[in-house]
Amino acid sequence: MAKSASSPDTSKYFVRNATGLVREFSALDTLLIASAMVFALVFTTNQFAWFYGNTDGANLTLSLLVAAIPFVFLMISYYVISLVIPRTGSDYVWVSRIFSPSIGFAWALLYMFVVFFVAYVGEIAAYSSAFGTILGTSGILSSSASLTNLGTFLSTARGAFELAVLFTILFGLFAVFGTRFVKGVIYGSWIAAIIGIIVMWVILGITSQATFQTHWDQMLVSSLGSNSSYSNLYNNALSLKAPIYSGGYANLLIALPLASLFLFGGNYISGFGGEIKNIRKTIPIALFLSLIFGIIFWVITSQLTINTVGANWITAVGWTWDNFAGTAHYALSSAPNQPLLLAVAAYPNTGLIYLFFVMYLVGSIAPLFAYFWIPTKYFFSWSFDRAVPSKFSNMSQRFNTPYWSVLAIVALAIILSYVYDITGWSTTFTVGSVVWGAAYVIPGLALMVFPFVKKNLFEQAPGFVKAKVGGFPLISLVGLATAVGFAYLAYIGYTSPAVTTVAYASFGFELLAAVVVIGFVVYFASKYFYKSRGVDISLAYKEIPPE
Q1: Beta pairing partners, 272
Q2: Is-contact 316 244, C-beta < 8 A?
Q3: What is the pLDDT of residues 72-113, one digit of tens each?
Q4: How far from 429 is each of 122, 129, 261, 322, 538, CA to CA, in Å?
């Protein structure tokens, strides 16, 4: 947004007069990135066993449709945020300008940390687990002990950590090399993903539950033993008091925070808002279509999956994996994950199995990269405001990328991958189910008060943003609905035994509290550091950053 004639020279407040970022991402580029963060093959890895097992077999389709209601308000909120502040890290800029610099930075640090830990670090681990299953299954099909052993290694915490380090370094290089490489990763991966999705739907669509059961026993029992048979896994689960599929409205309430994890991600594109072309048209297309496409993908994929493998079976066996993995009560070495289920459904057509495996692995790169790349933009935005050292906003003259911010995310990814090695899936599960959604309460509240605390910006906003109902700003109602909706989802998750008790308690909330404290400490330390050098960084937070 252009400054008014009376606005002061921003060079007094920001690192420099211009960010150095270029608007190079088109509507299609942005839509593909947003969609990759909502639905992707890698997200199917453990999702269905996890969801049905933890919700006593709730109806996922119905849960998604109900959970989508607050997401509609969230998308409207982020559309308004991007219109009013079309900058990189726009939600951070939004909260810090409406509430306070310290609150804005602490919130953004927590939000970035949560999304990064859940969607990048956690999904790299899921990818490693799926890769291990693919190699292990390939070992069974080809009678190769070396493939089976490598698959077993990748399914361990150490294997996941080493793969995370490798991917992080490669992603760091792609991010530093600029937009051409970023687009290459996104488009190349999406081509494979589309092929993989079609193959997955075809395999599931032509395989009956009876055929799946026969294929399961033919493919796995000779290698894993009789306890791993389709019927024995199910009967053993029932003997342990496992639930079966309930469907309908049963357990809908406790399923909502878990269903929300299927829909998160599309609005994360605000992180690179300063690099999107024609943002007023591009942002709503990406926000709303990614949500719609995501719902369609998850409904079709989940329904085809339970029709093929059996709704009662995936619920009971998923519950057993959730609660007894690694014990004598669970006969499989991994979750009943999507690559394994697809291999069984396609058996004995090894050509079709290997085609899906390759498309799955390549098609899962785009979301992993997107969740790695966007946090570098938050580091850049913080640095441009001087909330963190200004070095992080330094730009490569050759590639036009904030290379120090990329290096910071590489280091953070490796550290958090090690933390994940210690804490495991339970902490990630808790953080994702509760805190990711709760984080949207803050920008929702900021939107609610925006017309009253930033009257000049409100008056300069596009026409529909200034619409009123009975003299009250309509966007304030949207902000309130967003805040209430996600606060309620977080409350359900926090009070649900399926999320925060027994195996899933861990120390996730203590870790996040520490992140918030660190956020305030870093901001005030930076403020006093620059004040000692004659620069009041709080003045920058009274202005919108330049282009």
Answers
A1: 88
A2: yes
A3: 999 999 999 999 999 999 999 999 999 999 999 999 999 999
A4: 9, 16, 10, 11, 36
| Tens-place pLDDT, residues 10-49 | 456 787 787 888 899 999 999 999 999 999 999 999 999 9
Kindly report each contact of residues 23-27 with a partner whose C-beta sits within 8 Å and lies 24 or more positions away, as own/partner: 23/274, 23/275, 23/276, 23/277, 23/279, 24/179, 24/275, 24/277, 25/179, 25/183, 25/272, 25/275, 25/276, 25/277, 25/282, 26/277, 26/282, 27/277, 27/278, 27/281, 27/282, 27/285, 27/286
Residues 6 or more apart from 450 whose CB is under 8 A from it? Answer: 84, 98, 457, 458, 473, 475, 476, 479
The distance of Cα 194 from the centroid of its chain, to the nearest Å, equals 19
- Contact present, 539 and 12 (Cβ < 8 Å): yes
Specify the 3-state DSSP secondary structure of 410.
helix
- One-character DSSP codes across 160-206: HHHHHHHHHHHHHHHHHT-HHHHHHHHHHHHHHHHHHHHHHHHHHHH
Q: What is the pLDDT at residue 345?
A: 98
DSSP codes joined into one string, 224-268 = H-GGGSHHHHHHHHHHTT------TTTTHHHHHHHHHTTTTTGGG
Amino acid identity of 375?
P
Each residue's pLDDT tens digit, 301-341: 999 999 999 999 999 999 999 889 889 999 998 899 999 99
Read off the tokens for 14. Answer: 């920001």
Q: State the Cα–Cα distance between residues 162 and 417, nearest whole angstrom.
A: 9
- Spatial CA neighbour of 190 closest among 351, 302, 28: 28
The three-class DSSP label of residue 278 is: coil
pLDDT grade for 278, boundaries at 50, 70 and 90? very high
Which 8-state DSSP code applies to residue 472? Answer: E
Residue pair 122/165 in contact (Cβ under 8 Å)? The answer is: no
Interacting residues of 325 by C-beta distance below 8 A, sequence separation 6+: 335
Q: CB atoms < 10 A from the CB of 169, how many? A: 12
Q: 146-149 contacts: CB < 8 A, separation 24 or more?
A: none
C-alpha to C-alpha distance for 420 and 80, rounded to whole angstroms = 35
Predicted TM-score of the model (pTM): 0.93
